[in-house]
Amino acid sequence: MQCQSIEELQLLVNKAKKYTDQGKVADYIPALKMANPDSLSIALYYPDGNCYSAGDVSENLTLQSISKVISLALALMDWGEDYVFDHVGQEPTGDPFNSIAKLEISKPSKPLNPMINAGALAVTHMIKGESVEERFQRLLTLIQKLANNSSIGYSREIARSEFETADLNRSLCYFLKQHGIINEEVEQLIDLYTRQCSIEMNCLDLSRIGCVLAFDGKDPLTEVQLIPANIARICKTFMVTCGMYNASGEFAIKVGIPAKSGVSGGILGTVPGRCGIGVYGPALDEKGNSVAGIQLLKMMSEKYMLSMF
Ligand code: GLN
Hints:
Layout: H1 6-17, E1 41-45, E2 51-54, E3 61-62, H2 67-79, H3 81-87, H4 101-105, H5 117-126, H6 132-147, E4 153-154, H7 156-164, H8 167-178, H9 186-197, E5 199-201, H10 203-214, H11 229-242, H12 248-254, E6 259-261, E7 266-271, E8 275-280, H13 291-304
Antiparallel strand pairs: 1-2, 1-8, 3-5, 4-5, 6-7, 7-8
Glutamine binds near residues 64, 65, 98 and 169.
Family: Belongs to the glutaminase family.
Protein name: Glutaminase
Keywords: Acetylation, Hydrolase
């Protein structure tokens, strides 16, 4: 079943909006505090180019943890599966995204998966290029192609704000360096990672990325294979098992689609073989997921029978 009209979608947004006051905007990255906690927007993108959106879709969000899906795709394209998964595992942690706890007890000492910060830092380290600038441009170019929008850039203000307050991420890097998972200067990796997290777009762009993933890495309009199909499959699988942090299990039951959230309040959704979804609602629940965004996806999953299970 497909969405039929913008009005229909707007009705769901209005219903979900009342949940925004149950959440709080992320403040551990100071620049994220500026977001409007009442915002809620959504875009649905279908392979024929049809798009339905509701809420203030022109509002920009930074990708934050959503970027982990694309950096993983790029690292896999750069190095292949064996090398990448020698350095980062494939199992959910059940812990918060920035937790350091399991790093020490997992044997061998590698982060448990690429969707937690420790794993994402190890993945970003693997992006090939001569300099931070070149590595960042390669990631940004892939993201621009996936969203079919060459004007996508990054927020220097948010990148700087995160760089100045990223000591927990620095500590993860030092642990990874000591254990031979990364071997570059920590400040350099944090610079690249914070820029990656600050890549800025709106939920319409997000929904286009979701649509490419839904069609196995191929842009359904141009038919260009932007990500190899097996890599798109790996990314979607991680989105199911680890994409919503330590709420991934409940999300799989209640919504049932591959999705990845970020502390900005964005959610990238992909409904295999059907459509891409972009959501933005900066008020977060205690696990760091958009509180109204999850409610909205739940309502949509019921209405349009989106669950893949
Ligand atoms: N930039 C954020 C961080 O590393 C990303 C985390 C997130 O979105 N959950 O803390």
